[in-house]
Each structure stands twice: as C-alpha cells, then as structure tokens.
Design a protein that fits this description.
Helices cover 40% and strands 20% of the residues. It is α+β, with helices and mostly antiparallel strands and 660 residues long. It folds into three domains: 1-194; 205-423, no CATH class; 425-658, no CATH class. It starts with 5 loop residues before the first strand and ends with a helix. Residues 184, 188, 211, 214, 654, 657-658 line the site of zinc ion (ZN).
C-alpha cells in the first residue's frame, strides 16, 4: 500500500476562547491537512519534537501518539483545553503547516542550524535535526523562540480577574493553543534559519522586521481555512475593514486575557479612535519616523502589507459587489447571499496565498545584514517580478501604493516605480563596460566548467568548477536534510576558495560587487553632537588572503506563475566583518572591549542556466554612513537597559521582546 500524502488533524483556527459561542465553534474547529510523515509519540517527526515538560509542576505530560489507530481514525484528538495531548497535537499541526508553506515558497528544505563557539574565537556551524517545542514551558504571559536552545517555549497563565472578551476570569490561557502565537514563534525560528544576522539590532528596523514578518505570516496563514474566512466575510458583509471582521486581529484570547479593554494582542485592520469607536486603520506616513520600539515599528510594516491586501481585495471584488447590488456598489441591508460569500472568500484566500508566497520568497532577495523596510519592499517587488512577470492581479501596484502611504520609501532610488525598486543586475552597478565583462567572466569562471581553460593561466589553485556543478546537482536531488546541510557547507567552502583566488585579479570590482573591502578600511564622518570629525581605520587582516565568509550557497528550483516554467537559481551570501576599535573616540566606554563589529556583504542571485548574475544586493562593509548610523542607534539605545539587552545581542532577544 502507498503511504498517504496527508495526515488530517483537528485543531483550533483562532483559539479556544473563540469556540465559546455556538455559531463560531464550527468555523473555529478546523481540520489541518499536513504532509504525511511517520511520527513517534510527542509528536516527534523529521523537523520538530514536542517535549511536554512542565517545570512549574515538575512533570512530563503523557505524549500523544498520532500513530495510534483510534487517533488516526478520528483525525486526531478532539479539541480540548484540558488535555495536554491535544495541546501537543495542535502545536504539531500548526507548526508542520507553516514549515510546508515556507518550503513551497522557498523551493528548498528548512534546515535548522546554529553557530557554536568551540573554543574562544573559533566558531562552528552545526546542523540541528529537530526544533524542540515546549508547549508548557513556563507559567508566564510569554512565548518565545530561543536561538540558543533552538527551541520554542510557550507559557500559560491565569486570565485577568475581570470579565474580558470571551475569557472566564481566572481561567487558564494556554499560549500554545493559539495558532497565531505558534505561527509567530515558529516564523522567528525559520527566519533565523534563513537570515541569522537579522536578529542583530543594527538599525531600528531590524528587530521590528523580525516581529512584523512573524505577524504577517501568522495573519495570512489563517486565510487557508475556508470555513473561517467564509464566516468572517459573512459577518462583516464582505468588508475586511468592518469592526466585525477579526481577520486582522492577532492573538485574540491572549490580548483579551491581558486586559478587559483589548480586542486582541494586536489589531492591524481596525483600531480605536479617541472616542473609543472602532475605525479602519488609516495609513500614517509620519509613524515610520517617530515609532522606534520593535513592536509598534513592526506594526507599520504589517499594516503596509495588509493595506496592500485590502486595496487588492477591494479592487478584485468590485465587480462582484456591483453585480450583487444592481450596479450601485452598495449592498442591501441584511445578510449577503451565500454564493457571494463564497466568491468573496475565494478572492480573499487567493490574495492571502499570493501575498504569503511573495513575502516568504522575498527573504531570498534581502541583503544578508542591516535590512531596512525599504530593502524589504525592494525584495518584495523583485520576488514578485520574478514570479509573476505580468502582474495581472495588480499585486505589485498595490504594494507600491500601500508602502508609500505608510511612508516606507527606499532612499536611494530615482523614481518610485517597479523598475527602479527592483534590485539591479550587474550592468547597473558599474559604469565601465569592461569591468562588467571582466566580472561576468570571473563569475562564470567559478561555475561554468566549459570555460575553465580560458582562465587556467590566472588560477593558482586547480580549477574546481566541476566540483561546484556536481555539488549543486547533488543538493538539488537530495532529500535528507542533514546531507543537504553538509553538502551546502562543502559547496560554500569550494566557492569561497575560488572567489578568494579571484580577488587578486579583480580586486576593486569584486569588492564593490560583494560589499567587501580588503584594503585598510577608512571610515570617516562628521558627528553633529560633538561637532567633530570622526575617523576610524581598520587594518587589513593579517595573512595573504582576505578573510570573508560564504555564508550561504544554495541552489533552488523556482517556478513562475505565467507558464509554470522552472528555472534554477543559486543564492549566495558573502559576509565580511570589520572590527572597529573605539578606544580614544567619543564612543569609548560603551561597548564590550571598546570594539564594534561592523558587517557588510552581499546576496548574489545567479541564473544557473547562463551563470549570469541576476541580482546583487549589497551592504558595503566600508560604508561610513552605515557605521555612523549603527553607532548612533546603539548609543541612543544603550541608555535604556531594556533596549541595550536587545542590542547587545543578548542570548535570548525574543524572550525580552515578548514578555508582558
Ligand atoms: Zn515575536
């Protein structure tokens, strides 16, 4: 007999509090359809391991066995707040759903890893088989991702003593039963596996990005549940911005349990005005300049994405509304027709699908360090052009409009258009055509075995491009995540050595392309507060060869929406670290050892059919401007002990971010 493709498991779509009314119970209790895998009691599968130890009660709860016949036959255990085994099942279902969604969008497997310091100054990048998930990790109003332990920890707590929302005063609220919270925490972990440097607060957008990206995925994810979307569309008569609509509300039970006058932990489509009435959230471009704490600043990005969502939705359903209203565009009083509910829900679902695919895929079009919201917009636009060259549905246009209305406009572009927002291929980086040609050849030389002879005279080491190509093919064929990890590390090493050799010949151009600088780096800027010119010099690293990292080297297969054609891409990230000595400067006395680690580098996307660089996304390590901004930002926040902990790369940045 063939293995089944899917496993069906029952669970909540919102959270348990939502089932408290009869009408909602039906839409809240849904079936999660997840990719089939054999599991051990826990559940414990290929990617995750649920460990139900409760340190408060000092006990292990009995783990659920999903392979048990009765459990299998009944789509898992039925939703129950009182049965820890159901909690485990719910967390497993939600988490596996999100992992599948990311893998589909990224065209590759999610691989957990972490960097460990083997001995002082010596780091090792190690593969971690399973992310550990603790559904009852603490008695606290908190849940977080721990990069250090590679684990998700969920708390539980008593609801406030007042009647609030659907919570019974003093009842227990389990954060692990809120899919929003589970998706949010898991997204932190996945984002960290793709971009390990995004948890470093080098600018005000960085931690805000981690938060907002996790919220965006959590909110979009629930549109996959048809009954839930239909119910919400019915209740709000098709208007996403109606106060009746809960699709823009995150962690409803958690928020209501914190205080009686909260609608949810965070709401992105509606908000209370000064008189306490619920009104649609209006774009406010000034907020991007004034809000600094990671949650409220992150809220701007979520709002911008959801503003694009509502714009698209309104645009796409206008014809349906006209048809249903005899051309007036204003629906008659009362419930809307069930057929209309279905059609409207379908539109909303399709938009959510497309948006989440593009948001996830945009991660591959981000710089490796020091991301800001403008960069993310450029990544979104580029990812969307790649996926959907014609923009039939108007997604790009909606993103452009909504991000502008929220004041998120990248600084260094000439016009606010798709063309100028897209990241640039090589040609637009260099004015001199000869430089472009030389660099192109250098890149092709690294990857294309057919042209090795042309360059052998320049290459001191033996050409390894056959190995590169074979290694990429092995990775694309392989299914075992541990083998993929090992092979990718090997590939990065080979590519590193090949580029290393090239720096001799293409020094400045290669450095410019990869955001690196191997001469002594000179930073120079004017500090307004002290009215002084500030100069730093970072000497060239000792040794013959420059020191840099090929952090990532992953081949992926991508399909586009137009003809379904598959193309092969290689995504690489290059990183260089410059250690800036702050002694005897106005920055002395703030950072450990008076050293600041400045990082730069690039993400390169290479078309594996032609070995041409499609995009280069660069953050120059030698940028005086970036260093000034980073130091100023750190100084501002170091005065505040809470922020300082976040910025100083505390081992548990997300624990501090999420505590209430
Ligand atoms: Zn978070």
């Amino acid at each position: 007999m063939n293995k089944p493709s899917y496993r069906k498991l029952r669970g909540y779509a919102f959270d348990p509090s939502f089932s408290s009314t009869i009408g909602r119970r039906q839409s809240n209790e849904v079936i999660y359809k997840i990719r089939w895998e054999e599991t051990e009691p826990g559940p414990c599968g290929e990617y995750i391991e649920i460990i139900d130890y409760d340190p408060t009660k000092e006990c292990f709860y009995e783990p659920v066995n999903l392979e048990n016949n009765y459990v299998l036959a009944d789509y898992g255990l039925s939703p129950s707040e009182g049965d820890p085994r159901f909690h485990q099942q719910q967390v497993y279902a939600v988490a596996m759903n999100v992992i599948a969604q990311f893998e589909k969008a990224l065209g590759r497997k999610i691989i957990w890893s972490r960097t460990v310091e083997e001995e002082p100054g010596k780091y090792k990048h190690e593969f971690i088989n399973r992310l550990r998930i603790y559904p009852h990790a603490m008695r606290q109003q908190n849940a977080f991702y721990s990069p250090d332990k590679l684990a998700l920890l969920f708390g539980y707590f008593l609801a406030s003593e007042n009647w609030s929302g659907n919570n019974v005063p003093g009842s227990v609220v389990f954060t692990c039963l809120s899919p929003d919270i589970v998706v949010h925490e898991l997204t932190h972990a996945i984002l960290d596996s793709v971009h390990p440097y995004f948890k470093k607060g080098t600018n005000p957008d960085m931690l805000a990005f981690h938060e907002s990206f996790s919220d965006i995925i959590a909110l979009l994810q629930r549109f996959t549940f048809i009954p839930l979307v239909e119910e919400q569309i019915r209740n709000s008569r098709g208007d996403l911005l109606s106060p009746q609509n809960l699709l823009g509300d995150l962690a409803i039970q958690f928020g209501q349990a914190l205080s009686s006058n909260r609608r949810a932990l965070r709401s992105f489509l509606v908000q209370y005005d000064d008189e306490g009435n619920l009104v649609p959230v209006e774009p406010d471009p000034s907020k991007y300049h004034t809000l600094t704490d990671p949650h409220s600043r992150g809220g701007i990005l979520v709002a911008a994405v959801f503003n694009a969502f509502t714009r698209l939705y309104r645009y796409r359903v206008a014809d349906l509304i006209r048809l249903a209203s005899n051309g007036s565009g204003i629906l008659a009083q009362g419930e809307i027709h069930p057929d209309l509910v279905k059609r409207l829900s379908n539109e909303a679902r399709e938009i959510a699908d497309q948006l989440s695919l593009i948001c996830i895929r945009a991660l591959d079009y981000c710089p490796p360090v020091d991301l800001n919201f403008g960069d993310f917009l450029r990544a979104l636009i580029t990812a969307d052009v790649e996926y959907n060259p014609e923009d039939e549905g108007g997604l790009r246009f909606a993103l452009l409009e909504s991000f502008r209305s929220w004041g998120i406009v990248p600084k260094d572009i000439n016009t606010y258009s798709v063309e100028s927002l897209m990241w640039k291929p090589l040609e637009e980086f260099f004015e001199d055509e000869d430089q472009v040609l030389a660099l192109k050849k250098a890149i092709q030389y690294v990857f294309n075995p057919d042209i090795k002879r042309v360059y052998t005279s320049m290459d001191k080491a033996s050409p390894k491009n056959d190995e590169v190509v074979k290694s990429m093919e092995r990775i694309l064929r392989e299914n075992n995540r541990s083998t993929i990890f090992k092979e990718s590390r090997k590939l990065s090493g080979i590519v590193h050595d090949m580029f290393d050799g090239k720096f001799e010949y293409f020094k400045e151009n290669m450095e410019k392309l990869l955001g690196m600088d191997f001469r002594p780096i000179r930073y120079s800027f004017f500090d307004e507060r002290s009215n002084q010119q500030v100069d730093f010099e970072v000497p060239r690293t000792e040794g013959i060869n420059p020191v840099f990292q090929v952090y990532k080297c992953v081949p992926v297969i991508r399909h586009n929406s137009l003809n379904g054609n598959a193309s092969k891409l290689l995504i690489m990230t290059f990183l260089q670290k410059a250690e800036v000595d702050l002694k005897n400067t106005l920055y002395q006395g703030y950072f450990p050892g008076d050293k600041y680690e400045m990082r730069g580098g690039a993400t390169l996307l290479i078309d594996l059919a032609t070995y041409e660089i499609k995009y280069a996304i660069v953050k120059n390590v030698g940028s005086s401007n970036r260093l000034k901004n980073q130091l100023d930002y750190a100084m501002e926040n170091l005065n505040d002990p809470e922020n300082a902990a976040l910025l100083m790369q505390d081992a548990e940045p997300f624990a501090a971010l999420h505590s209430h």
